[in-house]
Specification:
The chain starts with 18 loop residues before the first strand and ends in a 6-residue tail after the last helix. By secondary structure, the protein is α+β, with helices and mostly antiparallel strands. The protein has 7 helices and 12 strands. Helix 3 crosses helix 7 (249-259). This is L-ornithine N(alpha)-acyltransferase.
Length: 265
């Protein structure tokens, strides 16, 4: 069995056959399906399926489609494979963070996968959402395998643009999950709140973490040292990074099996 980051670069543009679980499947969306994914994104991120959630980054990205064939999608994510510094510094995340610290000459920087707009249909019940999100992570792992990416990056959002209630979560992140000093992106956004670790991290802070962020951290991910307020989407978000080589071996094996369509998914 190949492992995450062992796949040849020549197959990076091919997702391969859909990953299936029962009646659901995960695959790359075709061009005509992007509109349906944007409707789902608008419903999740803007609270209105009729709102617009499209931007210039969509055209240069790959889009995951999860759901039943010939039905509305249940989940999606946007992925962009960065192969060099100019690409990374022109991506969506670079709008709000100075990513130049990620370009350390001492590290194997590229390819990187920028992951964003990851969401599941809000009307799904909790069990269904959990299954769908597991399938989505299998699809992300497939893209890591196919591209040979060594790093996943992106922004992970908290609901609401008011940072005040998030103090326990930010204290927890500051104490437990900050990235290396030399690699953490610097603050460039107009509204950015720097973390403080002056208080003892609490279970309340851990409980406040969004599901996606918990998933990143459980796989060995780390965060920046500040929170960015995004009033357009009514969210606050943190930069999140997952170095594939630093993932715990059991997690890496499990994701590799999911990516390869293990029957016990």
């Amino acid at each position: 069995m190949s492992t995450l980051r062992d796949a040849p670069d020549s197959v990076c543009s091919t997702f391969g056959p859909p990953i299936r679980r029962g009646r659901w499947q995960a695959r790359l969306a075709q061009g005509y399906e992007l509109a349906a994914l944007q409707i789902l994104r608008a419903q999740v991120f803007r609270g209105d399926a009729g709102a617009e959630d499209a931007d210039a980054y969509d055209a240069d990205s790959l889009h995951l489609w999860l759901g039943e064939e010939d039905q509305a999608p249940l989940a999606t994510a946007r992925l962009r494979i960065h192969r060099d510094a100019p690409s990374l510094l022109q991506g969506y995340t670079a709008q709000a963070y100075d990513l130049t610290p990620l370009l350390s000459p001492q590290s194997d920087n590229f390819p990187m996968i920028e992951l964003g707009r990851l969401c599941a249909a809000p009307q799904s019940d909790r069990m269904q959402q959990a299954e769908v999100m597991r399938l989505l992570w299998a699809a992300v792992a497939r893209m890591v395998l196919r591209s040979g990416a060594g790093r996943l990056i992106g922004c992970t959002s908290f609901q609401g643009a008011d940072p005040a209630p998030l103090t326990p979560a930010l204290t927890y992140l500051a104490a437990r999950h900050l990235g290396p000093d030399t690699q953490r992106p610097k603050a460039t956004a107009t509204e950015a709140i720097r973390f403080t670790a002056q208080c003892t991290p609490s279970l309340e802070g851990q409980a406040q973490l969004p599901t996606l962020l918990r998933a990143y951290l459980a796989m060995g991910g780390w965060v920046s040292d500040h929170l960015v307020i995004d009033r357009a989407l009514d969210t606050c978000h943190v930069f999140t990074c997952l170095d594939i080589a630093a993932m715990p071996a059991p997690r890496k094996r499990a994701l590799t099996a999911l990516a390869e369509g293990a029957p016990d998914l």
